[in-house]
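Box 4.2: Ligand-aware structure prediction
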Amino acid sequence: MSLHTNVHGKHGDFAIEATGLVKRFKSGKGFVEVLKGVDFDARHGDLTMVMGPSGSGKSTLIAALSGLLRPEQGRVDALDVDDLWKLSSGRIDKFRLDHCGFIFQGFNLFPALSALQQVEVVLKFQGLTPAQAKKRATEALTEVGLGHRLGQRPSALSGGEKQRVAIARALAKDPKILFADEPTSALDGENGQIVIRLLRRAASEHGAAVICVTHDPRLEEWADRVIKIEDGVIIDDQRRIPNPDAVLASH
Ligand SMILES: Nc1ncnc2c1ncn2[C@@H]1O[C@H](COP(=O)(O)OP(=O)(O)OP(=O)(O)O)[C@@H](O)[C@H]1O
């Protein structure tokens, strides 16, 4: 994979900048406001942690930032796009495909495909030739320490290995923005540590803006920045010096 330590779009250091995001959901006869005018930004090369209690709006924020869930108000500028939500849905999908990686708690792997195929599929969908896809997929899986497990299907992999396949799949396309939603919550301490270190490296070595939603305070150690959200409002935003060698104790 190529190193993208200095990829800066037209918004300078910011890979993504959002202002005034409001998201409401229907609730009974009325509405519940889940994002209450949120301003948010994330820089290239930073591991930005978004923390907050259950129901505080973290996943909704990620969905609004990544073009998955349209906010009622506010705008999102990302990479070379001004006001993502003004694009057609096809162009929003293309933006996501070209530039964004996603890692979720549930791994989202295809049961019938080998580790190698899980990663290849996405790359072919992006337009790589089969040979290019195979090479890139092998490199990405090797980078996450699964070079020896290329032919295994999810059923033969541990939870930690499955999450690493999901990370390889997200990293293989060298995304400029990587969204991770509770990426370690289904894992034990050792596997959680492997995963958070990979996210740290995606930011430091590949220059991705990594936005990681979690309610696990132990992950703060690896972050460049910790943003706290409560009840749809950002209540704290601190830069910090990450410790890439931190040790994640088991639950
Ligand atoms: N599609 C939806 N329809 C109605 N309400 C929703 C919908 N999605 C989320 N909500 C509500 O919005 C609030 C915020 O949800 P969200 O998933 O963003 O929180 P979260 O901080 O990510 O929580 P968790 O840590 O539990 O995942 C919750 O009260 C949730 O019930």
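In the box above, the bound molecule is adenosine-5'-triphosphate. The mean pLDDT is 91.
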